[in-house]
Amino acid sequence: MIHGIGGSSAERELSEIRPWTDCAPAPDEQEYAARMERARQLTRDCGADAVLVGAGESLRYFTGIPWGETERLVAMLLPVTGTPILFAPNFERGTLEADLAIEADLRLWEEDENPAAMIAAALGDIGADTLAIDPAMSFLFVDRIARAAPSCSVCAAGPVIDGCRMFKSSVELALLQQAKSMTLEVHRRAAKILRPGIRASEVARFLDAAHRAIGAPGGNSFVIVQFGRATAYPHGLPGDGELAEDDLVLIDTGCRVHGYHSDITRTYAFGTPTDEQRTIWELEREAQYAAFEAVEPGKPCEAVDAAARAVIEKAGLGPDYQLPGLPHRTGHGIGLAIHEPAYLVRGDTTPLAPGMCFSNEPMIVVPDRFGVRLEDHFHVTETGAQWFTEPSPSIDRPFG
């Protein structure tokens, strides 16, 4: 018997959810100042005079502006000394000032003006000879800026931006913890609403409503609900699956808290698992723990992936990405982006260091039949790793 699966309804579970009370504080002025100072130092270290950050997660990280990139250029120019300069459409002034969390020189452009030329002029104002550009900025903008400022050499700002965002502060860790704790509670309640014939779309709608009820204003940041054979495909199959007795259930979902992501997966049986499903589930859990135990500051990220694969290959699966086995990396960095550097995968030799945060999800796939993914997250400490959420204890008690 699987404990905590089925027996309730969406209405009942939603009525019992209360808004999260242990809320982590948003980044404050001191937090943003520390990020700016770190970015300035890393910009100097890479030999540039300024860094240009485009709209997206990195702009939010440095300024609080939660805008995505569009065809209209929005960016921050951060000199190694002096005030940050923000470029945005003039008609967005009110929204910009409401979102902006730092002091900045606003240089706003009208629809018939060329913002690339304005950036070139600003580079001249600060005497910049070398500009580090956000690697996430579209080539369209990079090319226009390079053409507008031909005397200024450009380089990729990956070492600057990743060198800041990969290492989470205590403020960021608290926000990540809240998001993940909220999502795990949503998972637990979603399992209770399962019944024969329920559609994946109905479960997805419940997850969204539950995330909103518990305190995530945007609801699901993403959602994957898979039943039966669809669990053999890491991101599912087209269509709206219908749950049947003894199906495996795989739910992968998350939310955002002040932009910081959760991303948790649980796999369990709706009914009685087969002996093979139980064996694969327990092997998945062993691989997940092996990855966690392999975390040690100074070791390369790829060592964590290797530890999970060693468990799976010892059981006769794989090797490498062959199926049955593990078809993808063991984990990814997470923060303001759901997938961000560094990565727990062969070839990523980035040294593990305190403050780095990762998913741990060495999924095992039995082709065209079923798959098991258990995904929790951890952050690197001075001595090893610390879970944000405790892993699922057993296939019979997936939520303890």
From TrEMBL:
Q: Single GO molecular-function term?
A: metallopeptidase activity
- Tell me if Zinc is a UniProt keyword of this record: no
EC assignment: the record states 3.4.13.9
Q: Which keywords are on file for this protein? A: Dipeptidase, Hydrolase, Metal-binding, Metalloprotease, Protease
Annotated Pfam families: Creatinase_N (PF01321), Peptidase_M24 (PF00557)
Kindly list the biological process annotations in GO that this record carries: proteolysis
UniProt keyword Protease, yes or no: yes
**What SUPFAM superfamilies does the annotation carry?**
Creatinase/aminopeptidase, Creatinase/prolidase N-terminal domain
Segments forming domain Creatinase N-terminal: 35-166
Primary enzyme class? hydrolase
Domain (Peptidase M24) spans 175-382
Supply the InterPro entries for this chain.
Creatin/AminoP/Spt16_N, Creatinase/aminopeptidase-like, Creatinase_N, Pept_M24, Peptidase_M24B, Peptidase_M24B_aminopep-P_CS
Give the highest taxon in the source lineage: Bacteria
* Family under the similarity heading: Belongs to the peptidase M24B family.
Q: What is this protein called?
A: Xaa-Pro dipeptidase
* Origin species: Stakelama sediminis
